[in-house]
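User: I'll paste a sequence; please echo it back and then give the predicted structure.

Assistant: Echoing your sequence first, then the prediction.
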Amino acid sequence: MIYQKFAKFYDELFDETMYDKWLSYVKNNVTKDESIMDMACGTGRLLSFLSDEGYQVSGMDLSDDMLTLADERLRDKENKVELIQGDMTDLSDLPNFNVITCFDDSLCYLSDLETLQTTFENVLNHLSDNGTFLFDVITPYQTDVVYPGYMYNYHDDENAFQWQSYIGEYDHSVEHDLVFFTYNEDIDAYDQFSETHFERTYELQTYLNLLKKVGFSSIEVSANFGNEEISEDTTRWFFKCKKG
């Protein structure tokens, strides 16, 4: 239960305007007659927005707790949304889609380039002809300049959250220490849950080389949810890749 509480609190704490921007990015690149599978869909907020807009969407996530919350959010939707528990490194049991998305730097949680390549290969193999892969990753500027020493604290009457970030073990990597406290009235004390998140990114050319290596034919990179050209202080890259 503590994991579900953490997932729900994280979902409530997350900046909702980010989902509005991801929604706009998808709408600018995808038509409503195309089927979409959102990898690492989390609690399904983007799926909910896309479904409300009339898109054909499915979602996949590794976490049971995230999918439980996603099901609560999506079960009454007029457009049925299929939710799948799965690992982005193995999509063998899934059908093909016109579009596969993966946002919120979820790909940066993969451990190394070999795993990232496997994921790219899986995506390519589960896209229809002329299908599109949309994703974002944080940049080395984010891991090396913005994150080190970053701290965030939040509390209300029932919950508290602490987030600290440190330079990671590898080049362009970072560790996030997350601690969550929630009041338990049965014991008149706080339950505590903590975890460490590891993220890793690479130089832009590394991503481009890997995408070309697995077979993507057209790759566009932008910043600010597709609205700007990339620059030295870009914190997140957005990729639009075509299978052709």
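Residues 113-125 form the longest helix (13 residues). The chain has a mean pLDDT of 93.
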